[in-house]
Amino acid sequence: MDPLTSQPGDQMRKFLQSIKDEFNIIRIKRKVSTHIEAAEILREHPREIVILENIKESNMPVISGICNTREKISRALNCKKENITRRIIQAMDNPRPIEDIKKLEGYHSQKADLKELPILTYYEKDGGPYITGGAIIAKDPETSIRNASIHRMMLLDERHLAVRIVPRHLYNYYKKAEEIGEDLPIAIVIGMHPATLLATTTSVPIDVDELEVANNFHNGKLKLFKCEKVDIEVPEAEIIIEGRILADERTDEGPFVDLTGTYDIIRKEPIIEVERIHFKDNPLYHAILPAGLEHKLLQGLPQEPRIFKAVENTVPSVKNVILTEGGCCWLHAIVSMKKQAEGDAKNVIMAALSAHPSLKHVVVVDDDINPFDLEDVEYAIATRVKDDDILIVRGARGSSLDPSASADGTTTKVGLDATKPLKESEKFERIA
Q: In the UniProt record, does the keyword Lyase occur (predicted)?
């Protein structure tokens, strides 16, 4: 069967059908191995959707790139590219409760065997094959508030994964469960609609359910399914895995290539034990290429609202905030604004650096500069920046992902005021 053929409820495949005439979908029909070879093909097509239809080690096709451009993400959110940040803010500020919860239906279920999945090994020094496009759904053991978040998961054997958990919401839930000597029930969902996937990456307070943010993206029409073995509700996906994060169990996790294209270190991380796997008919396994544009955008885009809000609180005339692909959608930001007073740009720089502590370089431009056009941004730097327009902060806490950071985690941060001086703006007027 054609992997793009959709059945009722196939949200990801319906999205692919809706954009197939607008975006390039590359279909690789030759036999491809999950070990390195598949990733090499994905790297050759950084901005395209790629479907690997014939996997040596699995009967499932692999899909990648559904969120690797802002244009695809804007289509998933039904907004213009320049309005993505405002659309995310609107959804984060207005999560919508989900009332449509059903029994799990439309899936084939079986006992756990993770090796049936085409889990890719992306690079030679990887610690093992990694699930990279899976979101973990869990509940707070005390409040039952749901959390949905993407985590990398390294394959250990047929029933076990090592999971990297940073100290945020899922970590908090897991520690609560571990303190009372219990495993944390979870579900892993792979192959979701891009808007649902994006919602799982948003930075909302711990008492906000990311799936309710997704429901806003879906205009209140998101459906959830009740799992069979764990008390968890999940969104529609190609693959649903039920299991538990084991209390007081740790194993080596890593190395893994992170956003900057450099290897993260080996750590002792928790272990997931899988109990049940549910598949759609002819499921598509979504793989996110580490350090690829899909990885960068999914991790970086949800930080733009945080920066935007902080900057807007400082200078209300902010137009947009962009975390650039060249800066790994993590280390470099461009802020577009309509300057109202001299010094506004420097205040914006300080607000941006405070809002996203991993940020390293910030460029502030006038609203006649297109922040999505890096040639236009470079023009602003070339023609509007003088020595007193450069703000340098030494010894600031940086990003753990930045290989240039010092051993103590500090770095030098730089802000560039690439705006026109208000008193001499006529000197900088550009031809139409």
A: yes
Q: What would the pLDDT profile of 111-138 be if each residue is shown by its tens digit? A: 889 999 999 999 999 999 999 999 999 9
Query: pLDDT by residue (tens digit) across 305-354?
Result: 999 999 999 999 999 999 999 999 999 999 999 999 999 999 999 999 99
The residue behind tokens 């979504």 is 286
Q: How far apart are the first and last CA of the chain?
A: 53
Q: Is 258 considered catalytic here?
A: yes
The residue from 10, 126, 140, 258 that is catalytic is: 258
Residue 228, CA distances (Å) to 66, 241, 350 in order? 29, 10, 49
* Helix (H), strand (E), coil (C) string for the chain: CCCCCCCCCCHHHHHHHHHCCCCCEEEEEEEECCECHHHHHHHHCCCCEEEEEEECCCCCCEEECCCCCHHHHHHHHCCCHHHHHHHHHHHHHCCCCCCCEEECCCCEEEECCHHHCCCEECCCCCCCCEECCEEEEEECCCCCCEEEEECCEEEEECCEEEECCCCCHHHHHHHHHHHCCCCEEEEEEECCCHHHHHHCCCCCCCCCCHHHHHHHHCCCCCCEEECCCCCCEEECCCEEEEEEEEEEEEEEECCEECCCCCEECCEEEEEEEEEEEEECCCCCEECCCCCCHHHHHHHHCCHHHHHHHHHHHHCCCEEEEEECCCCCCCCEEEEEECCCCCCHHHHHHHHHHHHCCCCCEEEEEECCCCCCCHHHHHHHHHHHCCHHHEEEEEEEECCCCCCCCCCCCEEEEEEEEECCCCCCHHHHCCCC
Residue 85: per-residue pLDDT: 96
Max CA separation in the chain (angstroms): 71
- Let me know the angle formed at the C-alpha of 414 by 328 and 204, rounded to the nearest 5 degrees: 50
